[in-house]
Write a structure and sequence with these properties.
By secondary structure, this protein is mainly β. It has one helix at 3-20; strands at residues 27-37, 42-47, 64-67, 84-88, 93-98, 103-108, 110-115, 126-127, 132-133, 138-140, 145-150, 155-160, 178-185, 188-194.
Amino acid sequence: MTVKSMWRTLLVASTMLLLLGCNDYGKVDQGRVVKYDKETKTLVMIRDKANDTQNPDYTYLPPLTYVAPSKPEEMGPEPKPGGRMKIDNKKNQITIFDPATQNFKTIDFIMVDYKENIDKNHPLVYDKESEKAKKFPVVDKDKKTVTIYSGRQKTLSVIQLPEEYFSMPDNTWDAGDEVRIYYKEEGKALRLMNITKTNIFKK
């Protein structure tokens, strides 16, 4: 069985477990990673209460900690952590997870520039010459702006924030990878799928 075939099987199985609520065969959890320690293979995530990658609900607290599988074939790509939970370009608000308070914080911002319908291959976010996605967020401490690309919303926003927030790490404004975890014992992942970086349908 190939790795992709294994993940297809896991996706189907996890969906069935979620629907049936069956505990004998383990449980499935899903969320966005806000912290990841490569040395200990430990991640902290905010659970997606909606279990919907297109319309997630990252409002679950406290954060959940899992030890990832040690075998690469049971894990896939390592997750990228990030603090951004949501950006609302209509209300001009961004919600982040604040490690210091272990809680969410919603911040009002000034919209400097905003573009819609920006897919992942758009020249503004993708470099065709190098065939690589451009790096976001872009933090400009002099102008007090952060440029944020949301692949799900297909939006590119340049927002201006109060000066006090620029002492925080750059990945505060980045969305962490979404992961799906299969486990039997609390806090110990038997399998971990990085939903953000795994295309199970690509041949």
